[in-house]
């Protein structure tokens, strides 16, 4: 896991490194904004930050490493073990973000990798710790960002992971600005 991330870090170049660090910094900033509202916010932030590393690998190698995605699920599982009342919202978040990706993968496996499904499910579960609708917003924003990126670059294929993570960070920021109600304080 570390070797793959380190290799992607070297391959991405200065601009990619700056974007990755900016993504982690933005994740920390929006997480801190949610902390007064929910004790689960650090788990959400850590999960999203870890998925940023997976997104970096995806941007370089067009694959999301299973080990990194699994590690990103750990803070979510810990938060659920601490407060089982968060489980329904976390499951709904996972379904809202991961479900459409799974359907797309099943319909066109060559168009959407299963790594995107797994990462999207973990991302949705992490966002669901705060509020399940954030997962749907993250999916929409992430897909719009990916579509725009693909159109601007005239790319036939793109890595979806970075757009999903960026969509999650934007959903967290927009949700906080809009005063979205959290699942539990």
What does this structure look like?
The protein has 185 residues and is mainly alpha-helical. The chain has one domain. 79% of the residues lie in helices and 0% in strands. The protein contains 7 helices and no strands. The longest helix has 33 residues. The mean pLDDT is 94.
How is this structure best summarized?
This protein is mainly alpha-helical and 185 residues long. 79% of the residues lie in helices and 0% in strands. It has one domain (2-178).
Supply database-style keywords:
single chain, 185 residues, mainly alpha, 79% helix, globular
Largest sheet: none
Content-based structural category: mainly alpha
Radius of gyration, in Å, reads 15 Å
Give the overall shape: globular
Distance between the termini: 34 Å
Which parts are unreliable, with pLDDT below 50 for 5 consecutive residues or more? none
Please provide the count of β strands.
0
Provide the number of structural domains. 1
Question: Would you list the SSEs in sequence order as H and E?
Answer: HHHHHHH
Query: What proportion of the residues is helical, as a percent range?
Result: over 70%
- How many helical stretches? 7
Strand content: under 5%
Mean pLDDT: 94
């Amino acid at each position: 896991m570390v070797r793959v991330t380190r290799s992607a870090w070297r391959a991405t170049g200065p601009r990619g490194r700056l974007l990755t660090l900016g993504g982690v910094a933005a994740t920390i900033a929006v997480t801190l904004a949610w902390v007064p509202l929910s004790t689960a916010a650090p788990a959400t932030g850590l999960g999203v930050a870890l998925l940023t590393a997976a997104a970096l690998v995806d941007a370089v190698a067009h694959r999301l490493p299973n080990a990194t995605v699994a590690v990103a699920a750990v803070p979510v599982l810990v938060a659920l073990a601490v407060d089982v009342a968060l489980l329904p919202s976390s499951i709904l978040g996972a379904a809202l973000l991961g479900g459409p990706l799974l359907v797309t993968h099943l319909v066109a496996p060559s168009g959407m990798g299963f790594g995107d499904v797994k990462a999207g499910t973990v991302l949705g579960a992490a966002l669901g710790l705060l509020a399940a609708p954030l997962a749907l917003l993250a999916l929409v924003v992430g897909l719009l960002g990916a579509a725009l990126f693909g159109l601007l670059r005239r790319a036939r294929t793109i890595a979806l992971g970075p757009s999903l993570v960026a969509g999650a960070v934007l959903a967290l920021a927009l949700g906080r600005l809009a005063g979205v109600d959290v699942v539990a304080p």
